[in-house]
Request: fold
Amino acid sequence: MNKKKVIINFFLIPILFTLSVFFLIKNTFLNEEHVAYNDIKKNNQNSKNHEDHDDHEEKKEIKLTEEQINRFDIKTIKIANNDFQQKMTFSGQISLNENKITHVVPAVPGVVKDIFKGLGEDIKSGEHLATIQSLNMAESKSSYITAYTNLSLKKKLFDREMKLWKEKIKSESELIQSENAYENAKIDLNQSKQKLLALDISEEEILKLPNQKIPFNIYTINAPIDGKIIERHITLGEVISNDKQIFVIANLDTVWINLMIPAEDLPKVKKDQKVNVFAHRGENTQLGTIMYVSPVINDETRTGRAIIQLDNSNKEWHPGDFVKAQVIISEQSGFLNLNNSAIQKINGEPFVFIEKEKNTFEAKKIQIKDSDKNEFVEILSGINEGDEVVIKNSFLLKAELGKNEAEHSH
Reply:
C-alpha cells in the first residue's frame, strides 16, 4: 500500500507542477495582452481625439457674402518676404508737404472787386482767385501801351528814313539817329513788359493789352499751383496791400510724415530706409522712404526729426493726424510684425484671420513674442509668406465665427 502511494506521488507531483507552470505562463500572457489592448485602445482614443481636434480646428473658418464683406469693411494685407524684417516703431504726425504750399500775395495794392474761390475749394493752376482794382496796375499797363505805341511810330520813322537814305535823299547820320530812336523804343517796351510780368501778368495777357476793352485798373489774381485752398484772408471791398497774404494753397497729392526719433535711437535711422506707415488704428498703411534725418536734437524733447514723403492721391492721409511708423532697420529678421488690431483672442489664445479663398476666412492660431498689449506685435509662427491677413475689422469675423459655432453646437 505504501509502495502504491509512492508510485502515485511520483507521477502526480510532476503533473501538478507542470499544470501550475502552464497556468502561470497563461496568466502572464493574458495580462500582457490586456495591457497591450489597453494601450492600443488608448492610442486609438488619442488619435480620435486628435482627429476630432483637427476637425475642430478645420471648422474655425467662415464664409461671407460680398455684401457682408462690403458692409463689414474687411481689409487684408498680403504677407511678403519684406514683412519679415527687424523694425523699430516710432510715433509721428502727418503734415503738409512744405514744398507744395503757396502763399498768395497780390503784386499791387488795391480794392477787392471779386472773389471767385472759397475756403476748402479745389483749384487748378491759372484759375482765377480774385480781382482787385488797382491804380498801380493801371499805371503799369498804360506805360506798356505808351511804349508799344511809341515803338510802332519809331519803326515807321526808321523805315521811312531807310527808304530816303537809299534814294540818297537823307544822310546816313539822319538814318543812324532814326535807328537809335527805334532801338530805344524797343528797350522801353521790353522794360514795360518785364514790369508787367513781375506783376504776375502772363505773356498772353500782355499781347492782348493793345486791344483790351476792360479797364486797365483791373488786376486778376490767379492760382500758381494745383491744390486746395486751406486759408482765405480776403473780403469784398477790402483795401489790401501788396504784402498781405490773401490765400494759402496746398497741393495734397503728397504729404509729409514727421517722425520724432528718441536721441538714443537716432543713429539707427538713416536716409533712404524703408518705412511702413500706419494710421487710423492700422487700417491705412503705406510703404515710404525716409527723405531727411535731422542732425539736430531738440533740447526739450530730446528727439530728432525724420521726414517721410507719402503719396496721397487718394486723399486718405489727413494733415494733423497722428500715425505710427515702423522703420526697417535690418532685412535679416525672421519675425513678422503685425498691428495689434489684427489679432483676436479665441478661447484665450491669439488668432489671426487668413483669407484662404475669396470671401472665405480661416482663424489661425499664432505664437507671439512677449506681450500682445503693444501696438505692434512680433509674430513667431502661425502665418506664412503669401497669406492674406485681415488687418481691419477682424473682430467682426470673430463674432460671426462665434455665432456659427454656437449654431452648430445645438
Notes: The two ends are 84 Å apart (CA to CA). The chain has four domains: 60-84+334-410, 87-97+251-330, 101-134+217-250, 135-213. Confidence is low (pLDDT under 50) at residues 32-57.
